[in-house]
Structure formats: C-alpha cells, structure tokens
Amino acid sequence: MLQISELKFNYKQNDGKEIRALRGIDFSLTNGESAALVGESGCGKTTLCNIVNLMLKDYDGSVLFDGKELKNIDKTKDYYSKVQYIFQDPKSAVSPYQKFAYFMTAPLINLKGMNKTQALNLVREKLPTIGLLPEILNKRPNEVSLGQLQRLCLLKSLLIGPKLLLCDEITASLDEHSIKDCLTIINEYQKTGMSVLFITHDIELAKSFSNRIIVMFKGTILEDTQGGQALTHPYAQELLNASAALKRSQLNEFSPKSAPSCPITVDSICPYYKRCNNKTADCLNEFPKLFKLSENHRVRCLKFKNAEI
To answer: How many CB atoms lie within 10 A of CB 218?
Structure first.
C-alpha cells in the first residue's frame, strides 16, 4: 500500500547550504499494518510524514501509495479521502472561531459526499465512542480541553474511513488518560483494515501501540523490527534506557555521551558513530547497510555484519 524507496530530502537555507533531513529511507506498509516510527527531535520523522501527506514534494527517491507516485498525484481530494494526518498540536488543525459542528462535518461533506444532516447524525452517533457528548458540537476550541480537542481531531479523520492514518506525535501534549483513549480509538478502527504510521519519540509508547518498531536517527533508519523481535541497535538501547530512567524519575542515572545529533552528516561513516559506546575503527570507514538478521528484523550496525542471513 505504501512503498518508500531511497527517499531523500534536503531543507535549503538562506545561505545556500542544505540540511539533509532524509538520507535514503526504505520501508513499506501493507494494508492493515501499523508501524511506530521512533526517534528524537530532528531525526526526520515529521519530514517523512509531511511528504506522505503531500506537504513536501521536492524529494528524491520514490514514494508510492497504492502504486502511484506521490509527485504525480493531482487529485488531492481523492488522496485525502484515503490518507489522513493527525497533527501533534490539535490547535493548529482547527479555527478558534469555528464551532465543532462545522469542523467535524465538513470533511464528511467535502470528501465523502454526505449532506449536512447525514454528516451531523454520524458525528453525533460516534461521539460517545470517544467519551464525548453531542453537546460539544456547539462549542469552540477554547471551550474544551486539549485532550478533548485531540480526540475530536482523531474522530474527524477516522470517520472518513482512511486507508492510511498518519499520527505525528499526537500524544505529546496529552495526559495519560487521553493517551489511552486515543490509542484505544485507533486500535478499534484498525480492525476495519486501516494502516497506521505512528510517529513518536517515546519508544515504550511505540512498543505498547505496535509490534513493528522503526528507529530513526539523522535521517536514516537504524533498526526495523516486528513480531516481538528485541531491539538491538545501540541507539535503540539508549532510547530504552532513557525511558526506563524516566519511569523511575531518576534521569540522572542516564548519561549518554554528548554529541550533536544533526544536521551535519557524513556518508562514509556510521551515522551513530559519535554517540556510540561500542564503536570500532571500522565504523569510521563504512556506512553500514541495513543488515537482515531475520525475516522481520533489519539493523544498521557493523557488529551485525556477519550475522546477516
């Protein structure tokens, strides 16, 4: 359904220099599959999401949706009836002056061809599934909590019945209860065959949502594992250790080596070289490929070079 091959993207600066945000991304999603894309800020997660959402088109490589290259898509109305994007900040997705009755029904009218009455009835019917009452449709964004607003944004996209849902750090500003509600809603709709690309910096949250974890760093994929395979890349281990320390509220226990994470990149060395505690001289001489450890596990690290199948 979604096939990404050798995807590269650079941001051009005013001084003529370029920031290399994506450096050759390769992965695919099948119908009904979910994948969690994990990495720190600046690793390229949102750039990738914006490309799939048609917000960035000046890329190299190939991005296919249902076999069609995204650069060649001109009928965006049809595309957005199949692909929906949930923003990190729900306030950026809605006008502060707009009542939710219009906000929730407009996509159903414009993308699904419903009339106003049909759209309103469907929204009212589904609101209880996200723990909200129909009365909220008479309110505006400044009259509800951030958690309520994000749940409304999520339901609005899900009611369209997309084939692919893009979730860009949608839980970043939510409390634990709202996070659980949002993930439960997504899981329910996945039963219809919808695919999900779930973007987050929280690796434990990613593991709780999906059994496929894709770890990104400096615009590259360092590990892609699914089906319960353990994460093995040193960077994935760093993320897991940081998450464990945060859970214990003892972040002072976690002190990885300090090094710039971006935008400077060198194609002749391992992208994680400066941060790695297990680097060797070989890491300075070779940009590792994604070694295949099993049918469901690929990792970009030279220590696994001899383990490839």
So the answer is: 27
* CB contact burial 98-131 (16+ within 10 A = b; e otherwise): eebbebbbebbeebeebeeeebbebbbebbeebe
Residue 269 lies inside a defined structural domain of this protein: no
Positions of E strands within 43-144:
60-65, 68-69, 83-86
Q: What percent of the chain shows pLDDT beyond 90?
A: 68
Angle between helices 146-158 and 176-190 in degrees, nearest 10: 10
What tokens appear for 231 in the block?
């994460």
Cβ contacts of 202 within 8 Å, gap of 6 or more = 38, 171, 243
Q: Indicate whether 263 pLDDT > 60.
A: no
How many distinct structural domains can be found in the chain? 1
Share of the chain above pLDDT 70, in %: 93
pTM summary value = 0.91
CA angle 259, 263, 269 (to 5 degrees): 70
Within a domain: residue 12? yes
CATH number at residue 38: 3.40.50.300
In which band, very low, low, confident or very high, does the pLDDT at 55 lie, cut at 50, 70 and 90? very high
Q: Could you give the CA distance from residue 40 to residue 215 in angstroms, rounded to a whole number?
A: 9
> In the structure encoding, which two tokens stand for residue 92, read together?
């950026």
